[in-house]
Amino acid sequence: MSLERMAFSSAGSARASRWAQTTAILLMAIALAAAGPGTAAAQDGGLGLPPGTPAPDAQVQDLDGNAVSLLDVVGSGPALIKFWASWCEQCEALQPQIDEIQARFSDRVTVVAVAVAVNQSPRRIRRHIERHEPGYAFVYDAGGEAVRAYQALTTAIVVLVDGDGRIVSTGVGPGQDLVGSVESMLGAGQESAG
Asked: Of 2, 13, 34, 158, most Cβ neighbours within 10 A?
């Protein structure tokens, strides 16, 4: 193949990639708008898996590109899994609650950010972590396996998982009361343990 044809082919691939990324972003925005602010979508039959469902595993990557199991990162205790992107304004609006949960409950709840692969790279994610120092794990969903497993059709989806590895709730958008939901989940866990 000539250099000229390779350059043309490469330019076409870049355009197709940008088109696919733009389409994915638009579809996520439509899904978020349809869900409405603060909707606990799974409970309403929308986005996400219903409560009581075992938390599915998915192959994701650490920020060095190594394959890891999402459930290995989450661990065996209660967890908060957020589907996140550096460009997501809804995610940014949720951040104060996530920060409070990390500050108050990090000894009892594992927070994991699943960075979607739309318009971001591990390098961009690392720069975000360096600037903000969140104190919890980030993984990169390069192949979209976690997004599919959790039916997370948009960013700003937060999944709470109890100590038995079952989904407690799934919500979307900044209107969620994540701190209250975590307090409730931990309270329910203490009652059943006692």
From this structure: 158
